[in-house]
Write a structure and sequence with these properties.
The protein has 422 residues and is mainly β. The protein contains six helices and 24 strands. Helices cover 8% and strands 29% of the residues. The strands form six sheets. The chain has a five-stranded mixed β-sheet. The structure holds ligand MTE and molybdenum atom (MO).
Length: 422
């Protein structure tokens, strides 16, 4: 049995979880990476050392050896309407906290429009003193601000509402959350210029796509930290993510982050659009529904190991994953290797930013036997991620939105990971 802990790191919970401080203090000793003592002669003279490499490219692409790292999406129900649905981020192949633009998830209710920025306009009207019309060029002259924020679709994790655990990977279950640095004009600046009437309590935000996707944003949120964004991770927003301009409502459910933004209308009460009534509400067993669930709940999941990228073999390994909350910063993430019987605190990767993805890590000495890996997070407001059983007890299985329960990966003796319920 190889489960004996020879790493020098103290155990932190059952099933081989080790003290997270070992990651920083180098107490893990040899063997974490299972690197064999590499000697210079093993380097050899591969072909790429023997002739000059390729020329530069105007817009970079990943290595051809990384072709498995890609978004996936289900084919459209109706071939006449491509681009309706969602593409998902392959979190099992990524690390860090920022999602590359090419892999940011995309959710579109009416396909991805091909918008000419010269022709596109943003209008602010309704309960304002001065209705305003912006060209994209005019918008870009206002003072801008950058912030790192996650966007998560309210439907992310919906498959965990299935009565039987689905045989799918992290990308399929949790791929509708991504995190980017967004840059744009604070919405408060534009609203101040328009002069908000005291009767206004909501901002109706509408997209220029064929779905006319629209939501009623509470005015307090609009004035607090909403951004009218032009840039995503330093470059202009990608078409799938809202080019040429989108709303960012940090921490609020995905569809309030209206893409292809063309209208902000100040109104006295919610407009009750299809996107906040028939959808993005949680149907309870009682037949009642939760509506206007704005902030995304505290959440986390393990990205490595996970289905498709299991354990290479017994021994020392770093478990890694992501945590987030629409209420603010992540305070703690705990990891269990025994299906929730015991928990050990994970290390949080700096910087731990409010309403952004937070990377966590913990060393694990896997003994080669079956294990049940879980993570659970707590945010700065004190919200704790619920077990699946607790979530179902509260709201039943009919509501397929805002599913933030603990996710379990079973590790088999062959090292493979699979999605299970405990
Ligand atoms: N105009 C418009 N805005 C939209 C949508 C849409 O279909 N049309 N989809 C919404 C939904 S449901 C989500 S989850 C987010 C997803 O943002 P992303 O595609 O940049 O990841 O965009 C929102 N904004
Ligand atoms: Mo969404």
């Amino acid at each position: 049995m190889s489960g004996q802990n020879t790493s020098g790191a103290p155990p932190a919970a059952g099933g081989g979880l080790l003290d997270r401080r070992a990651l920083f203090e180098g107490a893990l000793g040899a063997g974490l990476l299972s690197a064999s003592g590499a000697a210079a002669e093993t380097l050899g003279d591969p072909v790429w050392t023997q002739k000059p490499g390729a020329n530069f490219t105007p817009y970079g692409q990943p290595s051809r050896f990384e072709s498995k790292v890609k978004r996936v999406w289900a084919p459209p129900a109706n071939p006449a309407t491509p681009g309706i649905g969602a593409s998902r981020t392959p979190h099992q192949f990524l690390d860090g906290a920022i999602t590359p633009n090419s892999l940011h998830f995309e959710r579109a209710h009416g396909g991805i429009p091909d918008i000419d920025p010269e022709q596109h306009r943003l209008v602010i009207h309704g309960l304002v003193k001065r209705p305003l019309v912006f060209t994209m060029e005019a918008l870009s002259r206002y003072p801008m601000k950058s912030r790192i924020a996650f966007i998560e679709c309210g439907g992310n994790g919906g498959s965990l509402s299935q009565p039987v655990a689905q045989n799918v990977d992290a990308q399929a279950i949790r791929g509708l959350v991504s995190c980017a640095e967004w840059t744009g004009v604070p919405l408060s600046i534009l609203l101040d210029e328009a002069g908000v009437d005291p009767a206004a309590k909501f901002v109706f935000a509408e997209g220029a796509d064929s779905a006319g996707m629209s939501r009623s944003i509470p005015l307090a949120k609009a004035m607090d930290d909403a951004l009218v964004c032009l840039y995503q991770n330093g470059e202009r927003i990608r078409p799938g993510n809202g080019y040429p301009v989108r709303l960012l409502a940090p921490g609020f459910e995905g569809n309030m982050n209206v893409k292809w933004l063309r209208r902000l209308k100040l109104v006295a009460s919610p407009v009750m659009t299809k996107d906040e009534t028939s959808k993005y509400t949680v149907l309870l067993d009682s037949g009642k529904t939760w509506q206007f669930i704005w902030p995304i709940e505290v959440n986390s999941f393990i990205t490595r190991p996970s289905p498709g990228i299991g354990m290479p073999g017994p021994g020392l390994f770093e478990i890694s994953g992501l945590a987030w909350s629409g209420a603010g910063q992540i305070k703690t993430v705990e990891v269990s290797a025994d299906g929730g019987k015991s928990w050990a605190p994970a290390a949080l990767q700096d910087p731990v930013l409010p309403k952004a993805l937070t990377r966590f890590r913990i060393p694990w000495k896997w003994d080669g036997g079956p294990a049940l890996l879980q993570s659970r997070s707590t945010d700065a407001a004190g919200n704790l991620q619920p077990s699946r059983a607790a979530m179902i007890a509260e709201r039943g299985l009919r509501g397929q939105f805002h599913v933030n329960c603990i996710l379990t990966w079973a590790i088999g003796a062959n090292g493979e990971a699979s999605n299970v319920y405990v």
